[in-house]
Amino acid sequence: MSDHPDTLEPIKALSHALVAQRYYIDGNSKVEIAEELGVSRFRVARLLDEARASGTVKIEITAPTLIDAELSIALQQRFGLQHAVVASTAGNESEDAARTMVARVAAATLAETLGDQDVVGIGWGRTLNDVVSALPALATCEAVQVVGGMPDVELWMNSVDLVRRFSERSGGAMQTFLLPYLTDNSVIAEGLRRDPSFVRARQRFAELTVLIAAVGSWVPPLSGLYELLTEEERAAYLAEGAVADMFGAVFRPDGTILSEVNAERAIGITPAEIGQVPSVIGIAAGPSKANALRAVLLSGLVTSVITDSGVATTLLTQQ
Asked: Most exposed among 56, 66, 127, 295, judged by the fewest C-beta atoms under 10 Å?
């Protein structure tokens, strides 16, 4: 609307300003405004529309600078997710830089969404290690170790330590077990599964409300599980089309899970148990993780995802 003397309509402009003030700033309802002005609520609605059309009201939506809102919404819709949160990156960062950004966003997301009644399953992974390091104080939720660790490996593969550090942020109970993820054979694994600490943790698997899952890539190899396997085992998986893993499950590009060569000697949560958890949050960062995350998303096991804009853009442009 022009403010030229021939077109200026002071009374109407004042009406627009008054209604907008009451509705957008004072927080009054349309009914309350209608009663104050002695008009119908439909008249109030028309005045609000006119106020926006004339420029009296200008609405500006400001998303957090760390979040790419458009990519987040597009990714959520594309894969039918409960939530998708995409950390803003230029798309050309190193794996380490992207992982640091995604970890910050993931830590903030967990702090926002976790409640006192949640039972949270935690495994291991480089990104998950960074997420736990970035966590602020959390609601008093319970933390449960869901996969065994490995001796003589880097800190990020120590699932017991990740659960302990998570619990320090929440002040809640924790369930851990000092057992390896992979054993030499099925007989040893069966015996270790009777360990009281694992029995107690596994009883909580059915009560999990949230599962925080780091996604490993096989092509290129950026995976803790990949590093744990023998050359023969890796070759067997790759021959069957392995591109990703999550909690020991290995995925083809279409999301199907490969025959679980190591299932009999593994100690941890199974794909069937993962499928029963209401909220499974897949976290992946860096350009090399795009195909791996796509495979895991196509499996249907993941209900929400946290990633970076480079990965999200690749996922959304793939056919």
From this structure: 66
